[in-house]
Write a structure and sequence with these properties.
Rossmann fold; about 400 residues; Acetyl-CoA:oxalate CoA-transferase; three-stranded antiparallel beta sheet; CoA-transferase_III_domain; single chain
């Protein structure tokens, strides 16, 4: 069975992380993604470390399932070439600053006039309207602006960023949802549309109960570290060999937990009778529970907790994660063949589609790896391709020529 997005042609004009992550998902699902990178050296992420054999690991993390070409955006003929390719595509994805696509002659209104079925998808830092529309979209700035950082960390540490660029990644995933919605609507109407999201909007959509606490009760949540904001005990606890997450979310689970730990006396302790009392005496409760937990290792306790119906699990390092039998059994790491690095292991698409193989078979491209091949597929004759390369309008990687 073919992949679900097979046949969709995506022109990827994105860079850094939010846009490339979006188009990688589309490519993993079968879309024909052409990543366009500016000359002379390709997109900015290629310069960001760490590096594996001089190839950016950052770039590798967000650019599989694509074919890569190089075009000089500064030359009029290069921009004309981009427009020509856009008008032959189903979807154009971009994450330039607001107004840049219009300045290049590639704005949605202009393209849609010639191609009414075109879907354009855009990511900005703070949206296309309002006083912050011209701000550059940097993940940590958006994490702070959206209130996300105010919920992360502890009273002692103060606000802390999430350990990955969650604003970029979230915006990329939201844009995929918007694109798929536009594709479905186009199937009914024949018309495309302009789909937009931003780092700010994507993060605010994840505020969940914390956002609703403010909107409903005007409560401003404070960072609470590794404990649940409204349930106790629920969080991280020390064992004999490191931290363990415990999530006994109900009163019945609390009673079971005490039994498993040999601390049944706590069930009748006036400080811990109900969740409300446990929340008030959270620090004392943690000390009591850790006295019992330090008698065994985190994996020993994990097995006992799961057997007893208590959600629990260790806090793994990435070394632990990639060696974990559950991760391996679920096939969450895939191997691709990279033209320079050889075997390249990557975290794969985290979706299972019944009867469909969703593994990517295309490694992240080297700069300009597929220029000739893509141009030919877009209807250009060999002589025209030769001229574009000779005039420096486009770039073809020598190793892939």
């Amino acid at each position: 069975m073919s992949l679900p997005l097979a046949g969709l042609k995506v022109l990827d004009l994105t860079r850094a992380l939010s846009g490339p992550f979006c188009t990688m998902i589309l490519g993993d699902l079968g879309a024909e993604v052409v990543k366009v990178e500016p000359m002379p050296a390709g997109e900015m992420a290629r310069q960001w470390g760490p590096f594996d054999d001089d190839i950016s690991v950052y770039y590798l993390s967000a650019n599989r399932s694509k074919q890569g070409i190089g075009i000089d955006f500064r030359k009029p003929e290069g921009l004309a070439l981009l427009r020509r390719m856009a008008l032959a595509s189903d979807i154009v994805v971009e994450n330039f600053k607001v107004g840049t696509m219009d300045a290049m002659g590639l704005g949605y209104a202009s393209l849609a006039q010639a191609h009414p079925g075109l879907i354009m998808a855009s990511i900005s830092g703070f949206g296309s309207k309002g006083p912050a529309r011209d701000w550059a979209g940097f993940d940590q700035v958006a994490q702070g602006y959206s209130g996300f950082m105010s919920l992360t960390g502890t009273a002692e540490s103060g606000p802390t960023r999430v350990g990955v660029a969650i604003g970029d990644l979230t915006a990329g995933m939201w844009l995929v949802i918007g694109i798929l919605s536009a594709v479905a609507q186009r199937a009914a109407t024949g018309r495309g549309q302009h789909v937009e999201t931003s780092l700010l909007a994507g993060l605010m959509a994840l505020l969940s109960v914390q956002g609703q606490r403010y909107l409903s009760k005007r409560e401003v949540p404070e960072p609470c570290g590794n404990v649940h904001p409204v349930i106790a005990p629920y969080g991280t606890f020390e064992t004999a060999d490191g931290p363990l997450n415990l999530a006994p979310a109900t009163q019945a689970m609390w009673v079971k937990l005490c039994g498993i730990l040999g601390l049944s006396r706590l069930v009748a302790d006036a400080r811990f009778l109900t969740n409300a009392e446990r929340m008030q005496h959270r620090y004392e409760l943690k000390l009591e529970l850790e006295q019992g937990l330090k008698r065994k290792t985190r994996m020993e306790w994990t097995a006992l907790m799961i057997e007893g119906g208590i959600p629990a699990g260790p806090i793994n390092t990435l070394e632990d994660v990639f060696a974990d039998p559950q991760v391996q059994a679920c096939g969450l790491v895939r191997s691709l063949n990279h033209p320079v690095l050889g075997e390249l292991r990557q975290v794969g698409l985290p979706l299972g589609l019944d009867g469909t193989e969703t593994a990517s078979h295309r490694a992240p491209p080297v700069f300009g790896q597929h220029t000739r091949e893509v141009f030919a597929r877009y209807g250009m004759a060999d002589a025209e391709i030769d001229r574009l390369l000779a005039d420096g309008v486009a770039h073809q990687a020598e190793a892939a020529a």
